[in-house]
Amino acid sequence: MATEIKLPRLGQGMESGTIVKWLKSEGDPVEEGEPLYELDTDKVTQEVEADAGGVLLRIAVAEGEVEVGKTIAVIGESGEEIEETEVEGEPEVDEDDQEEGSPGAAREEERERGREAPADPDQQVTQIREPAASNGGRVKASPLARRIARERGIELAGVAGTGPEGRVVAEDVERTAAAGAPAAATAPAVPGNSLFQGPEGIEVEQLSSMRKTIARRLTEAWQAPVFQIAMTVDMSRALELREQLVELNVDGTARPTISDLLTKVSAAALMRHRAVNALYRGDSVELHPTANIGVAVAIPNGLVVPVIPGCEHRSIAEIAAARAAVVERAKSGKLRQSDLEGGTFTISNLGMYGVGRFIAVLNPPQAAILAVGAIEEQPVAVGGEVVVRPRMELTMTCDHRAIDGATGAEFLATVKRFLEEPGLAL
Predict the structure, then answer these.
(1) Side-chain half-sphere of 30: how many Cα atoms within 13 Å?
(2) Phi and psi dihedrals of 140, rounded to 5?
(3) Which helix or strand (DSSP H or E) is residue 320 part of?
(4) Contact 372, 259 (CB under 8 A)
(5) What pLDDT, in 10s, does the model give residues 171-209?
(6) What is the pLDDT of residue 52?
(7) Element (H or E) spanning 76, and its range?
(8) Could you identify which of 128, 161, 311, 371 might form a hypothetical disulfide with 132, taking C-beta atoms 3.0 to 4.6 angstroms apart as the criterion?
């Protein structure tokens, strides 16, 4: 009997995804668990495995955005007769019947966060040029877009809508706010890529789905009442430990780095200061029992924060192996949705770029993020004498709604102590 393959929900709040390409063609044999197609969500592009084995009898959706739960393909026995399968479009929501705060508005907000612009640059230009659709003088816009427009004092009538039938969505309002004026893009497209030629040779690049997500999340993070605390760490003992770990490293395994050591001691500190291992949820704060630490990774088209779960239970060598594997998946575009979920704390390290000190932006809903600078030889006073020691700056950004200053300071002091005497954390 034929099995309908439906678009899965790969994460909380996911309402839709965009099929990038199929890895199998109609008529090809498929094994259960074998990669079947590539799916792009607002967080990651990943290969999705087949739910059943057999022959790929029908591809119902070749590419494009599809709602969760819609049939996208049929797998069955060779020669098996199947009924016509169609994927319905996204049901339109009448904004006049949908009040903010209602269940419908909440669903629309979640759906909108997963919505993406078309892949074809020419189609993007066409949509941007179209004026926002209206209904009897009322601009068609989602509740979230209306709320953002009110908060930023933007007239919806001047915003070009890129949603279904010219509907204004949140990203349209954010794009207009960033531009400083409600003008639609009119520059001609440069064939073959997402760049647009503007006046006087200015190149305008359309934001990718990932960059839109980054922009939205960082805008949300910037609205949080945060504070920063910083401490300088003597890294002499930490560097000695790292050298010993490298000497003991088995060929073919990931070489432990200072970042791996920092991940381990941060996990140990989080277990002592549970209030920092927290997620801010609006009306509540979740204190998590395990240290699931996210590591910020720069990739060609943006920034991702894959998560290493249960770091308090892992050795430094195990953390190094997990870090190497997840960074490789990130840089090769093979990240899974599960790689990005469940984080309770984030570390961002720019030391390898020679950055001495910087402030990292929160990674909501996490309540804290640690920014790590370069290790630099600096003169310091020790026992009344000036000596040169390797020093490193740590700067932690905290959400004041979940963490108080003293709590953050105590946590960072513990991290400093563990780095200066690593044996205390092992």
Answers:
(1) 34
(2) -75, 120
(3) helix 316-331
(4) yes
(5) 778 778 777 644 333 334 433 345 555 566 788 777 766
(6) 87
(7) strand 71-76
(8) 161
